Amino acid sequence: MDMLTSKIFLRKTKRGKVLKVVREHYLRDDLWCGSDLCKKCNQENSEVLDDAPISSSTLCACPHYVVVDTNVVLHQIDVLESPAWKNVIVLQTVLEETRKRSTNNFKKLKEIMATRKDSFYVFVNEHHKDTYVERKPGESANDRNDRAIRKACSWYQTHLEESQQGREKKKKVQIILLTQDFKNREQALKEGIPAYRVDEYVKSLKDFPDLQEKLAASHSDDNAENREPLFPEHWAPTRIMTGIKSGKLLQGIFHCSRENFLEGSVSVEGQDKSILLQGHASLNRAVDGDIVAVELLPEDKWTSPSGIVLEDQEDQDPGDQIEKEEALLTNSTKGKDLQPTGKIVGIIRRKWRQYCGILLPSVLAEGTRHLFVPAERKIPKIRIETRQAATLSSQKIIVAIDSWPRTSRYPLGHFVRALGNIGDKDTENEVKLTVLLLEHDVPHHSFPETVLACLPSMPWMISQEEVNCREDLRNLDICSVDPPGCTDIDDALHFRELSPNLYEIGVHIADVSHFVRPDTALDKEAANRGTTVYLVDRRIDMVPELLSSNLCSLRPDQERLAFSVIWEVTPNAEIKKTRFTKSVIRSRRAYTYAEAQCSIDDPLQQNELAKSLRGLNKLAKIMKKNRMEKGALQLSSPEIRFEVSTETNDPIDVISKPMLDTNSMVEEFMLLANISVAEHIFKHFPECAVLRRHPVPPESNFEPFLKAGKTQGFTLDVSSNKSLAASLDAAVKPDNVYMNTMLRILATRCMMQAVYFSSGTVAQVDFYHYGLAAPIYTHFTSPIRRYADLLVHRLLAVAISADVTYAELLDRKCVQQLCNNLNYRHKMSQYAQRSSVALHTHLFFRHRVQDEDAYVLSVRQNALQVLIPKYGLEGSIYLKEKDEDSKSAFIYNPDEPSQTCDNITIRTFDRIVVQVSLDSKYVQHQKIAVHLVQPQIAGLSVEPIKTVNVSEPTPKKLKSGN
Amino acid sequence: MAEILLSEAEKAFIHHGVQDDLRCDGRTRLDYRPIILETGLVSNASGSSRLRLANSDVLVGVKVELASPLSEKPLEGRLEFFVDCSANATPEFEGRGGEDLANEICRFLQMSYMSGDTINLAELSVLTGQQCWVLYVDILILECGGNLYDTVSLAVKSALYTTQIPSIKVATMDGDQPELELSEDPYDTKRLNTQNVPCLVTLMKIGNHYLVDPTPEEECCSSSGVVVAVSGTKKITAVRKIGSGSLHPESLVSMLKTASEVGTVVNKILMTKLLEEERAGKTQKVGFMR
Predict the structure, then answer these.
(1) What pLDDT does A656 receive?
(2) Helices A521-529 and A812-844 meet at what angle, rounded to 10?
(3) Residue B284 to residue A2, Cβ atoms within 8 A
(4) Pair A105, A78: CB distance under 8 Å
(5) Contact of A399 with A352, CB cutoff 8 Å
(6) Across the interface, do B45 and A2 touch by the CB < 8 Å criterion?
């Protein structure tokens, strides 16, 4: 044979040219076999492969060398690490194939070979003149490599045979090929090479019984490639981009429906209605939050959201099949309320993160492919491969998504780490909390050293120089009003009469920007955290506690640095003059809302502070009235607070947060300060002011709200925020006091999310804050807990020449980026807070079953969404069990909407009695179960609980800020 | 073309030989000299051949490349010929000396391939109006021993015969740009049908007779002749008159007739030989080291 051959292959260049590449390949006749017994090879002594290897395998008792196939290295690399392996021949073909297929395994194999030089021999078969094989026409690269491996095996066989002619047959060294590939094994056996599966072989190693535990179960990857794709393919990115440019495709954020996992919507910027997506094919592997490209269907295929509530609730692993979805979706009411419907053709950006959840109990516990159920309902189940399913099945684990191939029903992911045992009482809460924070991407690690190094050293005093360059307001009677137990006091107020017709009021905000200097580690950390997150039993600080609870907190009787906004106003709350100054203050007293209310109401209290509070209160009321006239909204969302037992840390009672005059008084002045500051910084920095806007919700958002109003006989006007406020005020029913609150809750849900933005990125007309009816607004008053306020402080300080600027502050792109992060963190923190409440509700109901009053929030095709005001809790009552035929024949009337059974009709806002309990059927995935008690409907309602007397709850007036 | 100095006596000798149908080297008027052909010498090219006809030596390489088709022929790929007259052949080719000859050969090849019968250019289309294969045929003349047209045409045909066009498929459309996918198997290629690719037959008129495959000396004796492109189906796809002398219409008709017969035979023999070589499979290449 010629010692020079050439390897020829075709390659396509990036520019689309096809190249024929020819590589010269030189063969050699001086490559030795590496065996000690060989007499032919011209090698030095002490070779890797033993003269008389000892076999510990029962499968192959005679002495042998082992040749491993590439698939063994790729899939069973862990097994190869064992010292059980001796006299292993690694072919160059295998090495090269491994390198191409998995760099990780290649590295591992290299390491193994480096540490165990005496057991592994690399035979360069590709350059040996007798073992080189050329690819045949029609042969795949894989088949060629398999052939090369077999060729090397048979070469070894004949080569060794010649050197051990005299030996007894039993003592002759054989070559054994280990391969997982069935075809290769068959072929090898045909060619007379003993071949085994690696698991067979490992199990037969009697000296190493433990080794088989390291075996990875055989992969069915080859299968996966040939499987029928379940999903339509995604378009290529450039095609999507041109599609979007030409307007054929729309880009938006995908939201999975909370109620129906086969339904989702895509909100497209600048579009009124979000686009509806139904069914697996339309959702096309999008995961909640992804930025996707959508193609609209022709109008005759538009549908409306199906009324049914659907959960992907198989308790068993269904494999890679898509269940028949017609049945699940047919119910969508055709003909009316048509919504633009589309299908996803591509994913522009994945927003995958790590998800927390549990493993679905698998039928095959020994298997490695398991389904993971995320705690979030909007996230699909994830297929992971793990060999520790047994240990993980009782734990909360974190999983990351890797890919979602077309052939897979579920996305593929991998196990990241275990958080801890669910059943374990001590760690349960801690685990759940960690889970909650992780799920909502809340940075909650303790502050690193670099950040703590930025803090001032204690004891800390205000230096004289600092006082000199600030306005000294220590003489003023300043006080703060906050909720009880508040340690991060960031605002304080003062009031004084300048003349009978002119008052001076001041809002003093903690001067956090004095401590958090731009571009320090502390600043970066705070910017990343974006906001302090308040959970039911914990606070995740944005800045270290020394600042948040001490140096910045405007504690009573301590001198603190502040940023003050001071107005001169007439008794009619007309603002005559506004000024901003950095100051030094000393708060006289830290009131709670209740205490402040007492001071105002108690005529006996005549000290300066009480008088100030009264003055402030009076002005606040006028200001509020003015604001309401302009169209500010008073919306509602249920807010509750848990009484937590000090011993067990379990919630023992739930109370809704009371709303006092003083609450709104403080709120009023904060709004005023925010608006004043917003105007000022926008005047000075028209391009880069950090502002907050609340977009006017599109009319379509109000549909469920209007429908609900109609059922109650109210015509609601949503044409402007003012008319909305008026119609909300008018919608009162004496027999259903809570109804108004419910309407407000519904109205809240129609609103858009308020967002921070950089003024240079949005047209000035869009600055409008819909909820507050303010043309311009920002956040200035809580710099301890919000990073946006800190930015505003810096801008304002520059505007009044109290500080210097820096480049990032004036770059609107940088500012917008910061704002985007803040908006994200803000949203996540709200979700985290809600989850925290939900978590405590679970704890509260752990040992309780209670009957409570509830109101129907909305009527769905197969369920009622109810609100339990006492707990601010929402739940679904399924009217039809999924499987059984409905015993209770509810008739759904989508127009009203209502559900009728026999002669009982349930409509939106109806008061019903429900039984609340914790459904612990899935130990690791508990949820609150709600069952109907009244009205009694056979087959659906449950017996009321006797022991708990259902008291008539007084409808609580619930309010919230903006 | 290389000028050979011949005395009148020598010319007369050749003249008489032709008259008697016995040429200087013993051939009859319609005999070719022996031809040596080997294909696949240039491993980097998609197809290649080297052909030696007595002392004329030509090396041809075919390179396939993707390009956009001509706007007037969106459904077709194309062939581009390029002739390089190596100065090794004769010192006259040095510098731009061979350019005229090269262009002449190029043009005539192009012309003779133009007829729709010769080669199906639609086979070269990848994606209508967007992508097609272009076959760059590079012809290197290594030695001039007379009858260059015939030599070149036979070599080109052989090279085209062996040309492997990678199989490619349009995987996805990516906006306006097609995403082409190359087959992973280097053996997965297609070949052109070269059955009808024309061979050029040069007929030289010496005295009242004409002959094929003239030696340089015979070329010297002739004042006129024709080069005829004959496809595998006996069709004449192009004709070109060479030399300064004139031809009588009658003799021209007779020459064309003879050319088409000779061309068909040459074509047939070439195809059989190529097939034979292909059947023999991989053998040691002879190359230039003979």
Answers:
(1) 64
(2) 60
(3) yes
(4) no
(5) no
(6) no
- Closest by Cβ to A10, choosing from B65, B173, B186: B186
Interface residues on B facing A, Cβ-Cβ cutoff 8 A? 43-46, 64-66, 166, 168, 172-177, 179-180, 182-188, 284
DSSP β-bridge partners for residue B203: B212, B226
Nearest CA in chain B to A243: B175
pLDDT bracket for residue A884 (50, 70, 90) = very low
B289 is a domain residue = no
B36: containing domain: 8-280
| CA–CA gap between residue A442 and residue A528 (Å, rounded) | 10
- The pTM (predicted TM-score) of the whole model is 0.53
Neighbours of A143 (CB within 10 A): 15
d(CA B284, nearest CA chain A) in Å: 9
- Tokens coding A634: 């008073």
Question: Total structural domains in chain B?
Answer: 1
Residues of A with CB under 8 A from a CB of B: 2, 6, 8-12, 16-18, 20, 22, 135-141, 235-236, 238-239, 241-243
Reported confidence tier of residue A45, pLDDT bands at 50, 70, 90 = low
Question: Could A16 and B66 be called an inter-chain contact, meaning their C-beta atoms sit closer than 8 Å?
Answer: yes
Residue A430 reports pLDDT greater than 60: yes
**Predicted local distance difference test score (pLDDT) of residue A222:** 42
Are A937 and A902 within 8 A, CB to CB? Answer: yes
- Enumerate the residues of chain A whose CB falls inside 8 A of the CB of residue B130: none
Is residue A213 scored above 70 in pLDDT?
no
End-to-end CA distance of chain A: 86
- Rounded mean pLDDT of B186-195? 84
Chain A residues within an 8 Å CB radius of B45: 20
Please indicate, yes or no, if residue B288 is contained in any of the structural domains.
no
The answer to whether residue B187 is domain-embedded is yes
- As a three-state string, the secondary structure of A445-510 is CCCCHHHHCCCCCCCCCCCHHHHHCCEECCCCCEEEEECCCCCCCCEEEEEEEEECCEEEEEEEEE
Cα separation of B23 and B17, whole Å?
Answer: 5
CA-nearest residue to B285 within chain A is A2
CATH of the domain at B168: 3.30.230.70
Give yes or no for residue A578 having a pLDDT over 80: yes
Q: Is the confidence metric ipTM above 0.85 for this complex?
A: no
The residue of chain A with its CA nearest to that of B187 is A137
CB atoms within 10 A of CB B96: 9
B287 located within any domain: no
Calculate the average pLDDT of chain A.
Answer: 79
Nearest to B268 by CA among B223, B232, B234: B232
Strands B78-85 and B125-127: unpaired
Q: Which amino acid is at A574?
A: E
Nearest CA in chain A to B43: A22
How far is the C-alpha of A95 from the C-alpha of A46, rounded, in Å? 24
Q: Which of A3, A18, A22 to mutate to test the interface with B (most CBs of B within 10 A)?
A: A18
Q: Residue B174: which of A9, A137, A239 has the nearest Cβ?
A: A239
Write out chain B residues lying below 8 Å of A243, CB-based: 175
* Residue scoring higher pLDDT (B155 or A36): B155
Q: Is A432 helix (H, G, I), strand (E, B) or coil?
A: helix
Phi, psi of A786 (to 5 degrees): -135, 130
Chain pair A-B, CB pairs under 8 angstroms: 58
In this prediction, residue B22 has a pLDDT band, given cuts at 50, 70 and 90, of very high
